[in-house]
Amino acid sequence: MLFSTTCHPQTDGQTEVVNRTLSMLLRAILKKNLKLWEESLPHVEFAYNRAVHSTTKFCPFEIVYGFKPTAPIDLLPLPMQERVNFDASKRAEFVKNLHDRARTNIEKMTRMYEKHANKGRRKVLFELGDLVWVHLRKDRFPEQRKNKLQARADGPFKVLCKINDNAYEIDLPSTYGVSTSFNVANLSPFFGLEESRMTPFQGGRMM
Question: In this structure, how many other beta carbons lie within 10 angstroms of the beta carbon of residue 185?
């Protein structure tokens, strides 16, 4: 299972992309006939499973069954008849090789996405007992962000548990009424009151 912290659904980006693509296909098919969305799902499903993905370089149907199905738009007979008529051992070997190629393509694209995503990031790790500032996001702390002049962070709070390198459990008071697990993007290290209140231009530091 791929766990994510509260208010941080970006963990499962693959599902987000699929949902966004399916929504776009439904909008293109339905147009103003919004009540027909349920009847259009089989057509959208077939179109999505038949489309070649930029990551795998194959369509989902081909990865599962070993060949790409024909559609009414195709005026040619079934291509690659020898693939359809494989015996069990040859077909299993063919599908296995296809999965290996798809896996290689996925790993290649993952490395590329990771490189671009981490270009401007810095890795921050906390230990048990460390003191941190908690960023009060408006969607998670609506009561604390009613006014633009209210504080945008609170703390310091102690780190109670490390879920993984990107998520920690914080000793947050129950008065907030939210989950105590936070992504590192919403945490900042606490160095003490004097240093934490220092502006970036003090002490010779420049942004």
Answer: 14
Q: pLDDT tens across 11-50, in order?
A: 666 777 788 888 888 888 887 778 888 888 888 888 888 8
**Secondary structure, 3-state, the chain:** CCCCCCCCHHHCHHHHHHHHHHHHHHHHHHCCCHHHHHHHHHHHHHHHHHCCCCCCCCCHHHHHHCCCCCCCCCCCCCCCHHHHCCCHHHHHHHHHHHHHHHHHHHHHHHHHHHHHHCCCCCCCCCCCCCEEEEECCCCCCCHHHCCCCCCCEEEEEEEEEEEECCEEEECCCHHHCCCCEEEHHHEEECCCHHHHCCCCCHHHCCC
Tell me the pTM.
0.46
Among residues 1, 7, 11, the alpha carbon closest in space to that of 166 is found at 11
Residue type, 122: R
**Taking a C-beta distance cutoff of 8 angstroms, is the pair 161, 169 a contact?**
yes
Give the pLDDT score at 143. Answer: 85
**Residues 63-104: tens digit of each pLDDT:** 888 888 777 766 555 555 545 556 778 878 888 888 898 899
